[in-house]
Amino acid sequence: MSRPVLKVEHLKKYYPIRKGAFSKEKTVVKACDDVSFELYTGETLGIVGESGCGKTTTIQSVIRLIEPTDGTILLNGEDFRAMRGEELKQARQKLKLIFQDPYSSLNPRMTVKEIISEPLEIAGVCPDRAERDRRVLETMEQVGLDPSYVNRYPHEFSGGQRQRIGIARAIVLRPDVVICDEPVSALDVSIQAKIINLLRQFQRELDLAYIFISHDLGVVRHIAHRVLVMYLGRVVEEGESKELFARPLHPYTQALLASVPRMDAEGKPAPALQGDVPSPADPPSGCLFHTRCPYAQEMCAAHAPELREVSAGHKCACHFAGGLPSKGE
Amino acid sequence: MAETVLEVKDLSITFFTKQGALPTVDGVSFTLDRGETLGIVGESGCGKSMTVNGILQMVPAPGRVTGGSVKLAGEELVGMREKELCKKRGQDVAIIFQEPMTSLNPLMTCGRQISETIQAHKKVSRREADQRALELIELVGIPMPEKIFHSIPGQLSGGMRQRIVIAMALCNNPGVLICDEPTTALDVTVQAQILGLINELKEKFGTAVIFITHDLGVIRQMADKVLVMYVGQAVEQVDAKELFDNPLHPYTQGLMRCIPGMDGGDGDLHVIDGSVPMLYDLPKGCLFAPRCPYADDRCRGERPGFYGAGGHRVRCFRCESMGEEGSR
Fold first, then answer.
1. Contact at 8 Å (CB) between A105 and A166?
2. Order of strands across the sheet that contains A26-39
3. Whole-angstrom Cα distance, residue B151 to residue B139?
4. Phi, psi (rounded to 5 degrees) for A95
């Protein structure tokens, strides 16, 4: 087996907060707690979960947009967390981001050319301006943008085209890993399909590894090879995409899947989960999910389950993974 | 026969801009019976929201309702005086918007916002209105209603806020409830709760619902009948079951096929070529022709009618044999 391009171990990001506005007592919010994963070349890792479950915090910690509290990040086998200055800047060329909102993630006062060539300038990989321009035009063509639009501004483009500009900017430096934070959530379904196809095409052509965050389980199932399911900052289930969607082990994953409105099934939706995600500032005891879990038993409130391997490559953090007790006992 | 609460006939909305008169909604017709749910689907900018704005007579300038009629419980709304309309809105027809935070006053307690709406339409004391508001908060499934009554919207989660908006919409027991993408901003688990709540309340009060969404999965679960819109026109209109079993318009077929399924294949997703045309630069023929895989010369030169019989109507020449446009 080849070496993973990105290896994250026991990544933690804790935010200290005060309990109450005037209280002196301090506590921590575990926005991302003990997250580990490996990412191989040409592979897509999907991260799913409700809002506030730590998806974005996790990836921001991975690329050190926010400094993680603890954990190891190995990029191509090198310790990414130990890097400083120029070394960090160079390493970051290998990790690129695509954002959710193509309206706010592009500078409205820069032309498409400036937007796409900026990473090249920062990296200093091609000091020759003519060469840079050639790379910009080439990349525009790759993502399906008409190169004659090179001097236009972002507002002149539609949502789907702007997302293509975002993708062009991310891939122009030929990164190893592209992190996509809800890249298609703001788009219409017909445009969403085009962008997903484009991302998959680049993965094949450029051997990219993706971390793909989405709340749309259909999209994740389609694009991801492996999936992490997160709840309140912790990974509750991890597995091969096909296996995980066919045989979800964790009650939370099962509830997420049951909540998706499907075109092929008639009938009224039955809410699979009651209530909202608990406040991360005051998380439940034991298993974080026990307050909403239909199978919760006494031991769930007392002991936090470990993430353990149930079958080959399929991990689940539930006391009853593989053999759930009957509901509400 | 069920009682018809809303009858929309040939509703047209035109925006008068520098680029000329733009037909934002073009001849949309439907009827809605008590307890029935109509789903309206389509991509952004296809006139879904503008259609309901037209129903409520709230079309923003420079747009105007330029034709057709909207009958709410037999009463014509087009041309009604603003003062009369204000009595109807919130009383006989209520609307829920996509983003609950923007439709709530951030500085007013949730309870007061609901009781204010009650007092706007009924001559009741503050105490009675507050009491009713509290009942409503309980009705929409909010735990600890007294506490939430005194909370401001910023203290609540997205799902809770949307429940408050639903409570507010239902406070005068309207005949028609319009939901404009009410769950788009919510997580799937919360979405399932809100959809369940809307269905439950609809059955309890016999409210007719117009449900706007771009998610065909949601339509499948909510709607009794569906209106598929493309660039301001209804392109397919039929019972929900029939639409999913037998979609006839190429646009509907395309929309269904480009959604990554939960058990679909691994190949590339189906795409609809091109993009939605601009209203100031509409194609001469069928509006969908430039993106349609079946388009021929006739499609590019002529506008198709709205063909169909037996309640399944399609705006496509391929369905011409289904019979001429009849008025329903």
1. yes
2. A26-39, A6-18, A70-75, A78-79
3. 17
4. -120, 115
Cβ contact, residue pair B268, A200, below 8 Å: yes
Domain ranges of chain A: 1-82+223-261+271-329
Do B260 and A158 lie within an 8 Å CB cutoff? no
**Chain A stretch 135-194, residues whose beta carbon is closer than 8 A to a beta carbon of chain B:** 158-160, 188-194
Tell me the per-residue pLDDT of A145-188, one tens digit each, with 9 for 90 and over: 988 999 999 988 888 889 999 999 999 999 999 999 988 887 88
Could you tell me if A264 lies within 8 Å of chain B, comparing CB atoms? yes
Q: Tell me: domain A1-82+223-261+271-329, CATH 3.40.50.300, correct?
A: yes
Q: Environment class of residue A40 by beta-carbon count within 10 Å: exposed (0-12), middle (13-18) or buried (19+)?
A: middle
Does the beta carbon of A197 lie under 8 angstroms from any beta carbon of chain B?
yes
Q: Which positions in chain B touch A268 (Cβ < 8 Å)? A: 196, 199, 221
CATH T-level assignment (fold) for domain B4-92+174-260+269-322: Rossmann fold (3.40.50)
pLDDT tens-digit readout, B273-292: 888 888 888 888 999 999 99
Question: Closest by alpha carbon to B25, among B306, B304, B227, B231?
Answer: B231
Stretch B116-131: mean pLDDT: 92
* Residue with the two structure tokens 């450029």: A206
